[in-house]
Amino acid sequence: MPPLRILLGAAALAASLGAAAQTPVATCTPGPRAQCAGADLRFANLVGRDLQGADFRGAKLDRADLRAANLVGADFTDASALAAQFGKAYLAQARFVRARLVGADFESARMSKSDFTQADLTAANLSGAWSVGTRYEGARLDSADVQETKFSTSTFRNASMRGTKLRFAVFSDVDFEGCTGCPVDW
After folding, report:
1. CB atoms < 10 A from the CB of 172, how many?
2. Going by C-beta distance under 8 Å and a sequence separation of 6 or more, which residues neighbour residue 24?
3. CA Rg, the chain, in Å?
4. If you write DSSP's letter for every residue of 53-114 in order, what string do you get?
5. How far apart are CA 132 and CA 140, in angstroms?
6. Is residue 9 scored above 50 in pLDDT?
7. Cα-flanking dihedrals φ and ψ of residue 61, to 5°?
8. What is the spatial distance between Cα 58 and Cα 64, in angstroms, rounded to a whole number?
9. Do β-strands 130-132 and 150-152 pair in parallel, antiparallel, or remain unpaired?
10. What letter does residue 15 receive in the DSSP assignment?
11. Which of 15, 21, 95, 118 has its CA 20 to 30 A from that of 7?
């Protein structure tokens, strides 16, 4: 019987060969209308960049820094942006459908008419954000911080807000139908 270290070495070699045979991750040059679908932009520094209309569908943006970026009309559908920074970003008409945004920071962001349908915003920080006409249908905002956020004409149908910090949040003309943990008597 071969020594254990030879068996372990063979297993590690097989695993690395299998990983090398996979398709390389897409790369892109972030900018206006950039095609970054599936790109690996983890830890990227995109502070203040003009990324208007960029396609980040399925991209990996974990811990990326997009503070104060122009993300008008950008598409983050199915993207992973765990603990990413979006503070003071301009997100009008941005799409975050089914995006993984656990622990992401949207403090003081402007998100008018954005779409967070089925997004996971667990423990995300939306404090002081401006959210007008935004969709959170089926979204998960459990343990999120939405203190001092202005929600107007937004929809939270079938969303979850268990343990969400709501102090001084404003909900005006908001739809909470089927929402769990939402402030329905607001």
Report:
1. 11
2. none
3. 19
4. T-B-TT-B-TT-B-TT-B-TT-B-TT-B-TT-B-TT-B-TT-B-TT-B-TT-B-TT-B-TT-
5. 18
6. no
7. -120, 25
8. 14
9. parallel
10. H
11. 21
Q: What is the mean pLDDT of residues 118-124?
A: 98
60 strand-pairing partners = 40, 80
For 5, 42, 173, the CA distances from 170, given in Å and listed in that order, are 61, 33, 10
Question: Has residue 178 got a pLDDT over 60?
Answer: yes
Q: CA nearest 90: which of 73, 69, 105?
A: 69
Single-letter code of the amino acid located at 80? S
- How far from each other are the two terminal CA atoms of the chain, in whole angstroms? 71
Q: Tokens representing 53?
A: 């209309």
The CA distance from 99 to 67, in Å, is: 18
Q: Which amino acid is at 155?
A: T
Rounded to whole angstroms, how far apart are CA atoms 171 and 73? 24
Handedness of CA 111, 109, 99, 160 (dihedral sign): negative
Cα 89 to Cα 16, 19, 61, 149, 163: the distances in Å are 39, 36, 15, 14, 25
Higher per-residue pLDDT: 173 or 185: 173
